[in-house]
Amino acid sequence: MQADLIEDVLCGPAQMFGGSRLGDEELIQLACEEFKGQSFCIVRNWMMLDLLLSDTQEREVRKQGLQPTVLFINHAVFDNEARVQTGDGFITGYQKDFHGCFFESEDALYILAGRGARKHVSLPAFQALSAYANVGITA
To answer: How many CB atoms lie within 10 A of CB 37?
Structure first.
């Protein structure tokens, strides 16, 4: 059952999104200049996951000034605070803001490079993906 949920998240239909078209080195240089003093990470092969939560769970998330959306990242390009290694994948915390190719969670700004996707995901599917990806994010 969990394998089916994960497969649907990773391989099922999704809305395609485009991030920055700049190359990695150019993005790193620009981000280091523009976001000096701010925690940021440049990512590729990403997917925004809009979590389908119960009304109570969604109210709790929104009460914190956040949206019930997380970013599933397959490839970290650069993290200015070295929290993740280049090439690592992970899931962010809930969305604080989203504008163009910038996704901000509670803890960092993520610069979305290249193509990505966005889709709605059930809580059981998200939990299965989190367990599979071995990350500690839970809704």
So the answer is: 5
Count of C-beta atoms within a 10 Å radius of residue 40: 21
How big is the chain, counted in residues?
139
Tell me the one-letter amino acid at 50. Answer: D
- Helix/strand/coil percentages in the chain, nearest 5: 30, 40, 30
Q: CB-based contacts of 25: which residues, under 8 Å, 6+ apart?
A: none
- Beta strands in the chain, from DSSP E residues, in sequence order: 15-18, 40-52, 69-79, 90-91, 95-99, 102-105, 109-112, 115-122
Tokens of 138: 């839970």
Task: Dump pLDDT digits (tens) for 36-90.
Answer: 889 999 999 999 999 999 999 999 999 999 999 999 999 999 999 999 889 888 9
